[in-house]
Specification:
Helix content is 15%, strand content 35%. The protein has 2 helices and 9 strands, in the order αβαββββββββ. β3 and β4 form a beta hairpin.
């Protein structure tokens, strides 16, 4: 288990969350394996980032981070992904990166408990994500 010292966590918080706009995206994989992390973002996004119609990364603005004392975490606004013209299949999780293109750094990678399918046009199938970072 790796433990980041408090100074390191504070550095990450100040450097990325509170001073840089980040970008939220969805990833997929044909296997249940966690994505490789030993390749650059350009190669990684070509292999894992979904490419369905209407999909694009969402801007996670640095000015929208709010500290939620009851959770002991910083939260950003709610982001929605809703397919309109085709089903989105085999969505395995989401990621946050430092750029809207393939030149940035992968900041966070989260896996769902299983692959998800989001059906076109169904509000019930809307994927809602609230980015949250907890620093202890």
């Amino acid at each position: 288990m790796k433990i980041i010292p408090i100074e390191g966590k504070n550095f990450l918080l100040e450097k990325y969350l509170l001073s840089t706009d980040l970008y939220l995206g969805l990833w997929s994989s044909t296997t249940s394996e966690f994505p490789r992390l030993d390749i650059n973002l350009s190669s990684w996004s070509k292999v894992y980032e979904i490419s369905f119609n209407e999909y694009s990364r969402k801007k996670v603005s640095k000015v929208n981070w709010i500290y939620n004392a009851s959770l002991g975490a910083y939260e950003n606004t709610e982001f929605s992904f809703l397919p309109q013209t085709q089903n989105w299949t085999n969505v395995r999780g989401y990621f946050i990166t430092t750029s809207n293109d393939n030149t940035g750094d992968l900041f966070t990678l989260v896996a769902f408990d299983s692959a998800k399918t989001f059906l076109k046009g169904l509000v019930e199938a809307e994927l809602v994500i609230v980015p949250r970072y907890t620093f202890v």
